[in-house]
TrEMBL record:
Segments of this protein annotated with the region Disordered: 231-256
Keywords, alphabetical: Signal
Signal peptide as annotated in the record: 1-22
Protein's name in the database: DUF1501 domain-containing protein
PANTHER family linked to this entry: BLL7424 PROTEIN, DUF1501 DOMAIN-CONTAINING PROTEIN
Taxonomic source organism: Kribbella jiaozuonensis
Matches recorded under SUPFAM superfamilies: Alkaline phosphatase-like
């Protein structure tokens, strides 16, 4: 979402703490995070949760594609993928052709797909449905996010959860505690001969006095921070220059990109030992009412190109191996294509869970395309079951305390 749309979402969601913090009162910088990594490093055996939100309502049927189902082909004569176009997963399903990296993770048993995820009495409003997903309260609005309540229950340190999005999302706002925000910004040092000379300043020399040694260490710390954070991001002007007509399609519910940069930044923070247990990132633009096939496949290719190297990178360190990635959207799309080569707001959709701790494969039943509720898929898995699993097996917290006594988890989803 762009900042204006996101602020409207924050206001309408009812998560008042997040709205008050949207101006950046909880922003932290890289030096504060690096200092925390030195003073209170994340234990190498402690799990980390990375939540990726796909704003706009991703079409689950063209993501995990029932290409072999005649009802799918009939409902979407111009949008449907054929069986020879998708990446075969078994059970008559295939991944969108833009997700070749995730297909590799599926083959390696590091990708789980939870099918038919939703909530009772679904709401097709972007703002209301996203508020439900982020607060984990399907029946009535509440002023706190589900990870915000986890923060409330486990201490007052905002660094235990960090958002790398432009604005703090409601899921990270509690009643008494809210997560920290680290917006993407460039961090670079001089290059060429000047850069070589600058780098030399960080090398300790025999006989250095106390203050000379501290100055050298400061230069070295800055160089290390640049390696961790700097490569991941561009300046704001560079990001604006990257915008084009294609990127505006599907953006009525948010078109902000930069997911690859967000995840590269998160990977560096995890590897550096920053004591953060939960991170939030996002990709927008999935409101595909028109020209869906090209727009969604471009976005899913971007998702694939960001998440795949992120998960592969995490496998290389002890801390990274304990990270679990959760990817969701506020709703799926309707089964029947509309008259504009797109799909309208629907209900249930797939949720992806990735990482070394994940038991790869399908979880939950594939929704029927013939037994529908007013033209929409029927949810078979409550999204709170996914959250309860993350709370219990990743964050080590009793889900009943956070999810209003909802304690049902998904058996076997994570290796514990």
């Amino acid at each position: 979402m762009d900042n204006l749309t996101r602020r409207r979402f924050l206001t309408l969601s009812g998560v008042t703490a997040a709205g008050a913090l949207a101006a950046g009162a909880t922003q932290v910088n890289w030096s504060e995070l690096m200092a925390a990594a030195v003073d209170d490093p994340l234990p190498s055996d402690q799990s980390v949760l990375v939540v990726i939100t796909l704003y706009g309502g991703n079409d689950g049927l063209n993501t995990v594609v029932p290409a072999a189902d005649p009802a799918y082909q009939k409902a979407r004569p111009d949008l449907a993928y054929q069986t020879n176009e998708v990446l075969d997963l078994g059970d008559g399903l295939g991944l969108n052709p833009g997700m070749k990296g995730l297909k590799g993770l599926w083959d390696d048993k590091r990708l789980a797909i939870v099918r038919g995820v939703g909530y009772p009495d679904p709401d097709r409003s972007h703002f209301r449905s996203m508020a439900i997903w982020q607060t984990a309260s399907p029946k009535s609005p509440i002023p706190t996010g589900w990870l915000g309540r986890w923060l409330d229950a486990t201490g007052a340190d905002p660094l235990r959860a960090v958002s790398v999005e432009p604005t703090l999302p409601p899921l990270l706002a509690g009643e008494t505690t809210a997560a920290a925000s680290l917006p993407l910004r460039g961090l670079s040092l001089p290059g060429g001969a000047l850069g070589t000379a600058y780098a030399a300043l960080g090398k300790p020399s025999p006989g250095d006095g106390h203050w000379q040694a501290r100055a050298a260490k400061s230069v070295l710390d800055l160089q290390n921070a640049t390696q961790v954070l700097g490569k991941a991001v561009k300046s704001g002007h560079e990001q604006e220059d990257d915008d084009d007509e294609e990127r505006t399609k599907g953006a009525s519910a948010g078109g902000t990109s930069q997911l690859g940069a967000q995840l590269e930044l998160i990977a560096g923070l995890i590897e550096a030992g920053v004591p953060t247990r939960a991170y939030s990132a996002s990709l927008g633009g999935f409101d595909t009412h028109a020209d869906e096939r090209g727009t969604q496949q471009r976005l899913l290719t971007e998702l694939d190109g960001a998440v795949t190297p992120f998960v592969q990178r995490l496998q290389k360190t002890d801390r990274g191996k304990n990270a679990v990635v959760l990817v969701y959207s506020e709703f799926g799309r309707r089964v029947q294509a509309n008259g504009s080569d797109g799909t309208d707001h629907g209900t249930a959709g797939p949720v992806f869970v990735l990482g070394e701790k994940v038991s790869g494969g399908f979880f939950g039943n594939q929704p029927s395309l013939t037994d529908l509720a007013n033209g929409d898929l029927k949810a078979g898995t409550d999204f709170r079951d996914v959250y309860a699993t993350m709370l219990q097996h990743v964050l080590g917290e009793d889900p009943g305390k956070i999810l209003a006594n909802h304690t049902t988890t998904i058996d076997g989803l994570l290796r514990v």
